[in-house]
Design a protein that fits this description.
35% of the residues are buried. The protein is built from seven helices and eleven strands. It is of the alpha+beta class. The strands form three sheets. Strands 7, 8, 9, 10 and 11 form a five-stranded antiparallel sheet that branches. The chain has a four-stranded antiparallel sheet with strand order 2-5-1-6, covered by helices on one side. The protein has a single domain, classed as Alpha-Beta Plaits (2-Layer Sandwich), CATH 3.30.70.1900. The protein is globular and about 60 Å long. Helix content is 27%, strand content 21%. A hairpin with a 2-residue loop joins strand 9 and strand 10.
């Protein structure tokens, strides 16, 4: 056998993800004129680290995604998984420049601004480059959960970045945890919800986006009480100050009808804030999902709600269920 024939072929997982809502990754000037792989990669890294934090694996991020320049000499290394992004199956789509409607309290607002996003098929390929078996498993499990319940790219808090595939990556179910959840943002602090409507998906992007934004405003309003301004801004973000903890998608096709999904991690920062208020926040959001905003599509179904706090005693089973590994 020659030396070339004896070389081990690196394991690669290839995915074709179809956009359910347009994909956006920003870029210079936030024009969205092209897909930036770094925007996809950063979101995948963040979500996989959320899973690692939930199962108590403090080494996952550096071992999988590489070390930074401040790491001591001899321990620095590049990421141990190669990711290739293929945007050739995507096409640009012009979104409404601005979406707004009169507020019920007669207060003014600027509305939400969009430009160009992308629709179609996104190709992703992940190749092992020294990543351990447990960390490879965590990465693939996180991908399955992100595809099934969360979002990709930027402006997902305003409805973009819901992707889907008919062929999720194959991986064994999680059997156990490394240790207790880490004291940082993780899936042990996450929630996932969805609402399904009794109608087909509207053809107009403006309608799809506006419906999601109306639900987002409705959920935000559930935290609009005296003395809760800082809490509300922490959960739903504040321009030029802090990011958001909750993402609400635009409408997307679902079994001949349409749905939207809501997900988030709370607390979502380090150091954490409003930890003691989390049960109250979750209760307010869940109740708001049950009622829904005015002037939106109708549904006869109860919203699906799944909070990690309700599964703390059976976290591994919950993670496997999120990944579609069991019922």
């Amino acid at each position: 056998m020659s030396s070339l024939e004896s070389l081990q072929v690196a394991e690669t997982v290839s995915l074709r993800l179809d956009t359910l809502t347009p994909l956006y990754t920003g870029g210079v000037g936030q024009h969205g004129d092209q897909i930036h792989p770094s925007g996809i990669l950063g979101g995948i890294r963040r979500f996989s680290c959320l899973l690692a934090a939930a199962v108590g694996d403090a080494s996952f991020e550096h071992q999988t995604w590489g070390t930074d320049a401040n790491e001591e000499a001899g321990r620095r290394h590049a990421k141990r998984v190669a990711v290739r992004v293929d945007p050739s199956g995507l096409r640009p789509v012009a979104l409404p420049g601005r979406i707004n409607w009169p507020r019920g309290d007669e207060q003014k607002r600027n509305g939400w601004f969009y430009n160009v996003a992308h629709e179609g098929a996104l190709g992703l390929a992940f190749t092992r480059r020294g990543i351990s078996d447990p960390h490879w498993q965590l990465l693939l499990l996180a991908l399955r959960i992100q595809i099934r319940h969360a979002t990709f790219g930027s402006r997902d808090q305003f409805g973009l970045g819901v992707l889907a595939t008919d062929a999720l990556p194959t991986v064994a179910p999680l059997r156990g945890v490394v240790g207790p959840p880490l004291d940082r943002p993780g899936l042990h602090r996450a929630f996932f919800a969805s609402v399904r409507f009794d109608t087909a998906l509207p053809q107009d992007h403006r309608v799809r986006l506006e419906q999601g934004l109306r639900w987002r405003e409705h959920l935000r309003h559930a935290l609009r009480r005296r003395g809760q301004d800082e809490l509300r801004h922490y959960v739903f973000g504040q321009l030029n100050r802090q990011g958001n903890a909750v993402n609400v998608s635009a409408l997307y096709a679902s079994g001949g009808q349409c749905s939207l999904r809501v997900w988030g991690v709370l607390p979502h920062t380090l150091p954490a804030r409003f930890t003691s208020e989390r049960p109250m926040i979750m209760q307010a959001l869940r109740q708001a999902l049950m009622t829904g905003p005015q002037q939106t599509l109708q549904t006869t179904r109860k919203p699906h709600w799944d909070d990690a706090a309700d599964h703390a005693a059976h976290l591994v089973d919950w993670i496997n269920r999120l990944a579609g590994m069991c019922r």
